[in-house]
Amino acid sequence: MSSIPSFPDDLAVQFEPYLPSANTNGFPSLTLTFATSLDSALSLGPGIQTQLSGSLTKAMTHHIRTFHSAILVGASTAISDDPGLNSRIQGAKHQPIPIVLDPNARWNITESSRVVQTAKERKGRAPFILVNSQNLDDGAVVERKKMLQNYGGGYIGINVDDSGRFKWETILSMLKQELGIESIMVEGGGNVINSLLEEEGNRRFVDNVIITIAPTWLGKGGVVVSPDRKPDPKGQYTQPRLKEVKWIPMEEDVVLCGKLNASSTLYNGP
Ligand SMILES: NC(=O)C1=CN([C@@H]2O[C@H](COP(=O)(O)OP(=O)(O)OC[C@H]3O[C@@H](n4cnc5c(N)ncnc54)[C@H](O)[C@@H]3O)[C@@H](O)[C@H]2O)C=CC1
Ligand SMILES: Nc1nc(O)c(N)c(N[C@@H]2O[C@H](COP(=O)(O)O)[C@@H](O)[C@H]2O)n1
């Protein structure tokens, strides 16, 4: 994997207000970051890795990765993309720990998975995979766990809720307690991002948002960011709206930065 040229200082300074800072809420600081098309798609379809970021916005993503203790993706992204989940920016001073949400232990991670190769070459960290606690004793999980432990990673069991998902509150507090994670970059895919944005109770965990928008339409059938509109306990839908918004043009793309958790308000129009 070739290294990515360093991110220019004059651009890096513009992102500083959106980098993690110590959180007072007891949870790791969470940055939501992904690349999208003009029709809100992350990829052409489930299982199809689609390049959206240009070279400069890709460098930005790898620069931002170095400021986080962890990067988190869903199992389908791990399976389809076989990602490195490290920072390949020249001179990277810190590598985040990859975290994969995989309640049903679907990802057959092996010695030749890119993230493991990267850890072996000491160009990144070995991943921790979060599974439903009931799957921790599964034979395949036990074997994969042994393999990952050789490189400093592993499997962690968490109980799922009635819908088969982990609660975000549990994910975040467990990552902080067990792995000492203070900041986390959630990169995708659609399922993970939508589950984070659909409920006000989860949106409160999102501190910073950094979205690359590429000048292209992927068309119907793509994996889209479009959370369900779930009403709050009072039966109202509170529109999440970013604050402290900054648009940063970067070659053909534009990067949208903002803050979310500073209590989203009901938007009543101008
Ligand atoms: N453009 C971009 O920046 C990115 C694009 N992608 C693309 O997104 C696509 C994959 O997205 P999706 O199919 O939506 O899958 P996904 O990557 O969101 O994974 C879905 C799986 O993650 C697990 N999961 C999600 N939320 C969970 C929760 N709260 N608790 C427990 N488990 C949970 C479940 O196993 C679920 O089946 C791929 O095509 C990939 O290339 C992925 C990341 C970033
Ligand atoms: N920022 C960004 N731009 C794109 O165009 C993308 N397709 C993605 N995808 C995400 O990046 C992961 C790949 O990471 P590595 O470079 O392999 O470390 C992929 O799994 C998606 O999370 N991101």
From TrEMBL:
GO molecular function: 5-amino-6-(5-phosphoribosylamino)uracil reductase activity
BP GO terms, sorted: riboflavin biosynthetic process
Top-level division of the source organism's lineage: Eukaryota
EC annotation from Swiss-Prot or TrEMBL: 1.1.1.302
Bacterial bifunctional deaminase-reductase C-terminal domain: residues covered: 28-256
Pathway(s) served: Cofactor biosynthesis; riboflavin biosynthesis
Database matches in InterPro entries: DHFR-like_dom_sf (IPR024072), RibDG_C (IPR002734), Riboflavin_Biosynth_HTPR (IPR050765)
Catalytic activity: 2,5-diamino-6-(1-D-ribitylamino)pyrimidin-4(3H)-one 5'-phosphate + NADP(+) = 2,5-diamino-6-(1-D-ribosylamino)pyrimidin-4(3H)-one 5'-phosphate + NADPH + H(+); 2,5-diamino-6-(1-D-ribitylamino)pyrimidin-4(3H)-one 5'-phosphate + NAD(+) = 2,5-diamino-6-(1-D-ribosylamino)pyrimidin-4(3H)-one 5'-phosphate + NADH + H(+)
Keyword Nucleotide-binding applies: no
Alphabetic keyword roster: NADP, Oxidoreductase, Riboflavin biosynthesis
A Pfam entry, by short name: RibD_C
Task performed by this protein: Catalyzes an early step in riboflavin biosynthesis, the NADPH-dependent reduction of the ribose side chain of 2,5-diamino-6-ribosylamino-4(3H)-pyrimidinone 5'-phosphate, yielding 2,5-diamino-6-ribitylamino-4(3H)-pyrimidinone 5'-phosphate.
Family: Belongs to the HTP reductase family.
Listed name of the protein: 2,5-diamino-6-ribosylamino-4(3H)-pyrimidinone 5'-phosphate reductase
Organism: Arthrobotrys conoides
